[in-house]
Specification:
It contains 12 helices and 20 strands. By secondary structure, it is of the alpha/beta class. It has 2 domains: 208 residues, Alpha-Beta Barrel (TIM Barrel); 137 residues, Beta Barrel (Lyase, Ornithine Decarboxylase, Chain A, domain 1), CATH 2.40.37.10. Helix 6 links the parallel strand 5 and strand 6. Bound molecules: pyridoxal-5'-phosphate. The site of pyridoxal-5'-phosphate has 12 residues, from helix 10.
Length: 388
Amino acid sequence: MTDFDDDTLPFDEFDIAPARLTIDLVALADNWREMADLSGNASTAAVVKADAYGLGLEDCGTALYEAGARDFFVAVVQEGVTLRTYAPDARIYVLSGVWPGQEGTFYEHGLVPVLVSEEQLSFWMAVTAEHGDHPCALHIDTGFNRLGIPLEDALAFADDVSRPASFSPVLVLSHLHSGDTPSSSFNRQQLESFQKVAAAYEGIPASLAASSGIMLGSEYHFDLTRPGIAVYGGEAVGGVSNPMRPVAKAEARIIQIRSAKTGETVSYGGTHRLTRDSRLAIVAAGYADGYKRSLSGSGVPIRDSIHEGGFGFIAGHRVPVVGRVTMDLTIFDITDVPERDVRTGDYIELFGPNMPLDDVARAAGTIGYELLTSLGLRYERRYLYADE
Ligand SMILES: *Cc1c(COP(=O)(O)O)cnc(C)c1O
């Protein structure tokens, strides 16, 4: 027996966690509905790959299903198997397609492989000839040069009379590489190529737009849209204000507040020298928590090109990271925050409603997608189910 029985602990884990993550499922569902509105007559899927962009497949998948999503995209088959539990009658597409040996899993869990190459296409035709029909989708490359059946081959296959009549994809899709840059002429080029695909596969639903493609206008919507990042509150289009509600708030606790004198240095390498007497907050999150080392205030190469490092938010103030971000700890300069407004044990917001995800990402030289999917395992998570 110990005196520290779990039931007798006076604290909620969340209230004392070194690092914590609040995930607003109401905002998530609102964002998805907003994407569905913007998609006009097209149906709207939800992209939940990479553990729902790092925010939790179980909770996010369930919330999106309850909001009405019935088409989901995951990257790999195992994500589809997990999602099936929470989205019993949804159509779940697996974007990386299928490998020999996985076909049984697709049949057993009712997952739809998105066939991404002629090799996968022949394989799936052989599988369905042997085991009976099972839906598939075709990814056609219209200029990305990532996954996808080459355009000319896809057009030829559409007209191929030797194609078994029973072999009918349930969706043809392609992916824009510059959707986040509305002025890029690549978008129209890809659109025109995909219009040929949609015409060749007439009668089969077509899908081109991810979050940013939805915002390019109705021509890009076809029958099904595939928003991901916008649903999670991230910026879909560069350089315009983000209309989505923030979903994730990451916070870390101040373990220690220390006073340091002019001329002293801070953190590994001593790369930051204080130019005034300062108060420093030592905070319990670092690069192992996805708070990227490239957010360091100094001492990393990226500071030569992107002058300012990361900022946190506390008591109404933006406070800069000083020196290098370390594995488990980051140091913020809180000199400008009145002493009475900040104590050890308080939380600094790393990103969230007061510190936009994409601003933090830019300081790190990356994108919101990467920050979300790098969060790591140490955050205590709390999901909000109703507006508070
Ligand atoms: C990730 C992905 C999406 C979602 O993209 P967002 O930019 O997050 O909206 C859609 N389609 C494909 C093929 C993807 O890989």
